[in-house]
User: Which sequence fits this backbone?
């Protein structure tokens, strides 16, 4: 067992490890790619019973890739393993471990005695561990380098990069506008007078962000962290 300080580990239990090219871990990686609805921190999981994959799922309620979602946990920069209640996509019921159990249930399969393989994360939270143990899962496997491969900062380096190119700004006072301009320059986003990929509007209460179809995607309060939080919103788009 690797000497890693996990945020949570149930008494009397521990993770097991396999290489990333293990056949069942490859299946978990495929589930991550095809099923995960969380584009920021995608995770896939499979259940293996009697040498066969019986269920596969991804986190983010299996919505699949390409979903537009702004996570409040990322916006507010909350510590890892906390604040799940802030985000419906990242709340524990949507974690890959819970989703794969739900998928087994949907298929009418008994997961008792199965092993779970997790690709995309390096530990399991308490609600997920509890669900796995109550379902009779024998062991939970991650890759032997998961604590490095899927460390949050490393994953975010790959996923927290805006796909948008232009931002339009309306109603900003001069002081906040200057700060936002600097931030947009750092993100290499162009300010477009009209018709930007995202429209940010300063109101009396905060900043509202809209997509091109006029869909309100996020609202920020006017605090001393508003520019940093706006940056975290745009990095997810």
Assistant:
């Amino acid at each position: 067992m690797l000497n890693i300080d996990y945020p949570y580990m149930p008494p009397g239990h521990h993770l097991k490890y396999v290489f990333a090219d293990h056949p069942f871990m490859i299946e978990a990686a495929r589930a991550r790619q095809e099923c995960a609805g969380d584009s920021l921190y995608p995770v896939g999981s499979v259940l293996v019973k009697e040498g066969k994959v019986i269920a596969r799922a991804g986190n983010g309620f299996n919505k699949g890739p390409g979903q537009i979602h702004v996570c409040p946990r990322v916006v507010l920069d909350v510590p890892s393993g906390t604040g799940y209640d802030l985000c419906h996509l990242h709340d524990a019921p949507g974690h890959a471990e819970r989703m794969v159990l739900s998928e087994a249930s949907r298929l009418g399969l008994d997961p008792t005695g199965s092993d779970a393989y997790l690709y995309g994360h390096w530990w399991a939270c308490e609600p997920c561990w509890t669900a796995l143990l109550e379902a009779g899962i024998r062991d939970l496997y991650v890759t032997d380098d998961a604590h490095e491969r899927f460390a949050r900062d490393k994953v975010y380096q790959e996923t927290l990069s805006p796909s948008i190119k232009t931002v339009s700004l309306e109603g900003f006072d001069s002081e906040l506008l200057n700060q936002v301009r600097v931030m947009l320059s750092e993100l290499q986003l162009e300010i477009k007078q009209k018709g930007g990929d995202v429209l940010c509007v300063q109101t009396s209460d905060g900043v509202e962000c809209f997509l091109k179809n006029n869909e309100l995607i996020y609202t920020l309060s006017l605090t001393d962290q508003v520019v940093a939080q706006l940056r975290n919103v745009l990095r997810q788009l």
User: Anything to note?
Assistant: The helical segments are 23-35, 72-76, 96-106, 126-134, 146-149, 152-159, 174-186, 226-234. The CA atoms of residues 112 and 136 lie 4 Å apart.
